[in-house]
Structure formats: C-alpha cells, structure tokens
Amino acid sequence: MLKLTLVLAVLANLGLGTAEPFFDILSNLMNKAINPRNNDCRAPSTDKYTEACSEINEGYDYADLMKSYNDATTAISGVSIYQWQRTHEGVSQLSSVGALMLVLSKLSQNAVDETRSQLYNLINLDNSKEVRYLIPKVAKEHSATSGDFISTLTTKVFSDKVFSKNFIKCTNEVIMGETGVLDYNNPSAAAEEINSWFGEQTRFDRADVVTAADVRNDSGLIFATCHNLEFEFDQFIFSELVNISFYISEDNVTTLPVWKGEGKAKYSFNDKLQAHVVQLPLKGDGTLVVIKPPIGRVPDLLYYLRDNRNFANLLAESQETYLKLYQPLNDYVVRSHDSVLGLKLANQLTQIYFDDFDGFRGILENGSGYVTNMFHQIHMSIKGLGQNAITSDCGENAKEVVIDSGFVFYVIGPSGGAPELCGTHLS
C-alpha cells in the first residue's frame, strides 16, 4: 500500500477544523517512510529549485508515472473520506482530491529543502522533471469542456503581492492555472472577486465559496480550484423515481425517493464486508462505483478502503450481469471546502502557513510567500435521468439490488485510474 507520510493529515476530506480526533492515528503514522515505486524508503530529495518549468515529452514512462500519481490520489481519496466521517458523523460528503493534487504538484516546483521532499512524497513523484513530464498532461486531460464524460479542473492563485513573471508563466504551463492580485485590506471586495472567479468556472448556478471573514489583511497565497464533472450512464437506464424505506440506522428509517434502473453492469457481493459492489458504466468509458455495506457499517467500510489495494481488489471481483437497481442519485450536487484545514494536521507541513516561512522560491517578486487557503468547489451533474423508458426484456432474469442504507461511491474517469470524485450518501 502506498504509505504517504502526510496522507492521514491531508485528509479529513480536505476540510477539517480540529486536529484532536486524529492524533491517535497521526502519532503512529506520521513518521512512517514513503514507499516509492522501487519499494525502498524514499530518501530526502536532492532536487533543487530552478525556474525551468516547460513540459517535458520524453525520457519517462507515462504509464509508470501515471500509476504512481494515481496510487497517491486513490490513497488520499480513501483516507480523506474515512477521516471526514470520523469528525462529521452522519453527514454525506463529496470530495475531489484531483484538484488538491494539481496545486501541491505546482507548489513542489517552488519549494526547497524539507518542504520540497514532503510535497514529492505526497504526490508520489521524485523530482521536478517528473512533475514537468506528467502534470501538464494531467492538467490538459482535465481541460475539455465537451464530450460524453466531462471532468474539468481550473485553478487560480491569489495574493496581495506581485507574482514573479516566471511563476505566472509556469502556473499556466504546468497546471493551466491563472494568477490574480487582490487588496486584502478590502476583504469584502477580495472575497467577491474570488467568488466571481468561481462563478465563471461553471455553467451551473453560482454558489459562493468565500466570505469576507476568510480574507485577512495578513493572508498569504490563496488557491482556488473548481472541479466540474458531468456524466451520463451507458447501457443502464434510470427510468423513474420510486419511494423506498431508507435506513439511516437500524432504528431510524425514512422514506426516500430513489431512481429505479435496469441494464448491464458489473456486480459482486463481498462476503468479508457483507457489501454489495456495483460498477455502472458511463458514456465516455467512465465508471460509477457504489459500495453498500450493512446498515450502519459505512465507517468500517471506509476504514477498509484506506488501502487503495483493497479498493482495486473489490473492483476486480465484480462480474458483468443484468441488474435491476434501486439507487439514490442526485442529478446535481455542489460542495465547497478549504483543504488547508486538513493540511494543517500534517505536522511536517505546518511551516508553510506562517508569514515568516522561507521555503518557497520564485512565487513572488519579493519574498517566499506562504499558504493561507486552498478553496475547492465541486459541481457534479448526472445527465439523462428519467429521460428514457426501460425496453429490455431481461428484467425477469435480472439481479435485484436495493441501495436502502448508507453507501460509498466513486466516479472513475476514462483513464481507469484514480477516482475523479469520491463521497458518501448517508441519509
């Protein structure tokens, strides 16, 4: 399993306000070594900061680096939803780790000394050349705004100080990002400008992410990322809404409208977890994965899914079948959070949040710069629900599965690698 030194801290769905509940795990895991691709303990990086940032297109194996990066993303996804559940009991969530990974990848290029090593450990890459080879390609894959499966990631970095010309250029070249200068002495105007940028990144209804209270006159770098995800089911038709009894717990039952669907999917029942595993195909070669444990056992499932190998093994068990499914689905969901609240749990990274931090080079025209916020907004839209009638005559032989209690879900993109989004549905 990918053992990320920082993972359990970054984590908490990328948005926690208190560290106390995690010290029991952090005390045991914070100092464990990273397992790089050669499975030996990764030594501190000797890679030095340079202004070079142009994309590299040769000298590396794309599949190898992508697997390493995907392993990190999958591991962080699994731990993030586990940690969120520990401090937000009974609250459904939606999380995008991909946005955070792009930000941390860019920061790794500007970090020096210990911070540089820690960031490489987190993204599971070894040096700036690997970042320059892989990350621009990842960013381009998340820039398309049309197609069957749309997953766009956009980023803007704000400061009240002037950015260096090289950082402006490299932010665009590496992660296709932008920069902007704000007046932190006018927090209302600064918050409005950040929210306006978020509003411009999606065709859905605008939802504010930042308030004036989030912007202080001593704020440093403020990162903003928006993840738009749109998809439609393939070979599977959700035709109508029906009411079922949904178990929030054994003694708390509510009536919930869910989508009734039929079609081809992959399915398995895991005896160890007593969990249903459903893989629904998406147009554009993506997959929606739904894992439903027994009533009240979502926390146990999330604990199990912290190991990205367990997630892969669950998927490998499933076989194609004709399925009749009763599934809670929302055609549109928006969530916002600040991942810095979770990152601050990582004792080895807390230095980047102090105004006297001197571990970045080349971000600002003058001085190191330090990180105050990493605001993320996620928009997820499911197209085609209720637009088609079920016409197959396979219903009599279908395997029937009713998702009538809390479950975990992942949206996997066409690359078949790391989850684009992960979340829980609990009520």
* Alpha-beta classification: alpha+beta
Q: How many helical elements?
A: 10
CA-based shape: globular
CATH fold-level assignment of the largest domain: Antithrombin, Chain I, domain 2
Arithmetic mean of pLDDT: 85
CATH superfamily of the largest domain: Antithrombin, subunit I, domain 2
Q: Write down how many β-strands occur, each being a DSSP E stretch of 2 or more residues.
A: 14
The percent range for helix content is 25-40%
β-strand percent reads 25-35%
End-to-end CA span: 31 Å
CATH class of the largest domain: Alpha Beta
What is Rg?
22 Å
Low-confidence stretches: 1-40
Order of helices and strands: HHEHHHEHEHEEEEEHHEEHEEEE
- Count of separate structural domains: 2
CATH architecture grouping of the largest domain: 2-Layer Sandwich
Taking the sheet with the most strands, its summary is: 9 strands, mixed
Family: Belongs to the serpin family.
GO molecular function, one term: serine-type endopeptidase inhibitor activity
Keywords: Protease inhibitor, Serine protease inhibitor, Signal
Protein name: Serpin domain-containing protein
